[in-house]
Amino acid sequence: MSVKASISMTDQQDAFARKLVEEGHYENLSEVVQHGLELLRAETEWPEEDIEDLKKLLNERMNGEFITMEESERRIDAMIEANRKAYGL
Q1: Are 48 and 56 in contact (CB under 8 A)?
Q2: What is the pLDDT of residues 22-41, one digit of tens each?
Q3: Mean pLDDT in the chain?
Q4: Rounded CA gap, 29 and 25, in Å?
Q5: 3-state secondary structure 9-76
Q6: CA angle, corner 56, sides to 80 and 74, nearest 5?
Q7: 39-48 as b/e, with b when 16 or more CB fall inside 10 Å?
Q8: Burial of 17 (0-12, 13-18, 19+ CB in 10 A)
Q9: pLDDT digits (tens, 9 = 90+) for 2-26
Q10: Which residue of 33, 60, 62, 87 is surrounded by the most CB atoms within 10 Å?
Q11: This model's pTM is above 0.70
């Protein structure tokens, strides 16, 4: 189903969209706008499986071992030192 809508765009946006149509990338201006909206939707909406994976990870982390900031820094420093030695730095 299609819905007609009126939009406003800058002169530069209009010229760019019309050039895309003229070059044969799209059949008409509506297709250009629709494609742009689909890209925005893909960019801003997370797939449900990604959200579920993130929730699972957060729950695992919340139920995992808690260490202090000092212990975390000690472990990071030890890891960096081990990598330096492994690479001869």
Answers
A1: no
A2: 999 999 999 999 999 999 99
A3: 93
A4: 10
A5: CCHHHHHHHHHHHHCCCCCCHHHHHHHHHHHHHHHHCCCHHHHHHHHHHHHHHHCCCCCCHHHHHHHH
A6: 20
A7: eeeeeeeeee
A8: buried
A9: 888 899 999 999 999 999 999 999 9
A10: 33
A11: no
